């Protein structure tokens, strides 16, 4: 199963992506989490310390690796075909959650004819992870809609579009779903996050119905999650209503 998680910045997509990945891993699946956000912080959600996460060199910024894979003896000329399977073993980062983490870094112009060596390497690696391997893959996308135009998420099975009840978040979520419609992605739907109660749930459901969108899950607002983001103290998953709801979503997806 390959899952992409998208949405407007600040709606909690990275927390949901990380919690889904950790749940799949705890259920015994080999899981690779891909951080494709220009400001990567998925590692912290997966249990790394801020210092450990900061030491990770994104693939797109690893000059030695890029040169090794794409370099030739001719200046200005680089290889278009190369192996990437070894990169996963060498550069994926084990996390306390049991998930292997790969940080891609800024992914620009993918799918639009870019001939930059770094982008060619990242594109080939993403394709290998999403097409050629049997691992469960969770792809934490950059915020907004541009990544769909670059084809970054075209090969996933499911696209979870995270939104809260804010109008701007809902409009961006609808745009993402519309852009993804007609692609090969089998399941596309909204995940309402940080929903404080019935009035916000009604707003979300009314918007989804009006725009012909599916709601895959509703994650309630959880003060414990908000406090953890401020203090850095790990969340007690057993008492977190948000974590429980995300874990339930993961379990339901596994049944399909």
Please list the strands of the largest sheet in the order they lie side by side. 3-4-2-5-1-6-7-8
- Distance, first to last CA: 10 Å
CATH superfamily: P-loop containing nucleotide triphosphate hydrolases
At CATH level 2, the architecture is: 3-Layer(aba) Sandwich
Order of helices and strands: EHEHHHHEEHEHEHEHEHH
Indicate the overall shape.
globular
Under the CATH scheme, which class? Alpha Beta
Please give the largest β-sheet. 8 strands, mixed
Regions with pLDDT < 50 over 5+ consecutive residues? Answer: 107-113
Helices, by number, come to 11
Helix content bin: 40-55%
Total strands: the figure is 8
Count of the domains: 1
Question: Rg from C-alpha positions?
Answer: 18 Å
Structural class of the secondary elements? alpha/beta
Mean pLDDT: 88
Strand content: 15-25%
CATH topology: Rossmann fold
Structure described in brief:
With 256 residues, the chain is α/β, with parallel strands linked by helices.
Description:
There is one protein chain. The longest helix has 16 residues, at 117-132. The protein has an eight-stranded mixed β-sheet with strand order 3-4-2-5-1-6-7-8, with helices on both faces. 43% of the residues lie in helices and 17% in strands. α1 (13-26) crosses α11 (241-255) and α4 crosses α6 (117-132). The chain is of the alpha/beta class and 256 residues long. The chain contains eleven helices and eight strands. α9 (198-210) links the parallel β7 (187-195) and β8. It has one domain (2-255): P-loop containing nucleotide triphosphate hydrolases (Rossmann fold), CATH 3.40.50.
């Amino acid at each position: 199963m390959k899952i992409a998680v998208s949405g407007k910045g600040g709606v909690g997509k990275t927390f949901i992506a990380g919690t889904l990945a950790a749940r799949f891993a705890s259920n015994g699946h080999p899981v690779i989490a891909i951080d494709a956000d220009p400001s990567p912080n998925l590692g912290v959600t997966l249990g790394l310390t801020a210092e450990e996460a900061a030491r990770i060199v994104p693939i797109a910024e690893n000059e030695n690796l890029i040169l090794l894979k794409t370099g030739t003896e001719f200046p200005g000329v680089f290889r278009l075909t190369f192996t990437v399977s070894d990169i996963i073993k060498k550069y994926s980062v084990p996390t306390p959650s049991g998930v292997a983490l790969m940080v891609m870094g800024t992914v620009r112009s993918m799918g639009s004819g870019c001939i930059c060596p770094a982008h060619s390497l990242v594109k080939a690696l993403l394709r290998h992870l999403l097409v050629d391997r049997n691992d469960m893959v969770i792809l934490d996308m950059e915020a907004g809609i541009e990544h769909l135009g670059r084809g970054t998420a075209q090969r996933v099975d499911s696209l979870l579009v995270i939104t809260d009840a804010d109008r701007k978040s809902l409009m961006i979520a609808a745009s993402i779903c519309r852009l993804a419609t007609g692609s090969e992605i089998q399941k596309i739907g909204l995940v309402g996050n940080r929903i404080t109660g019935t009035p916000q749930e009604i707003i979300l459901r009314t918007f989804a119905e009006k725009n012909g969108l599916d709601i895959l899950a509703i994650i309630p607002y959880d003060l414990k999650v908000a406090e953890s983001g401020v203090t850095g103290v790990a969340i007690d998953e057993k008492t977190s209503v948000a974590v429980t709801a995300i874990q339930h979503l993961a379990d339901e997806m596994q049944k399909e």
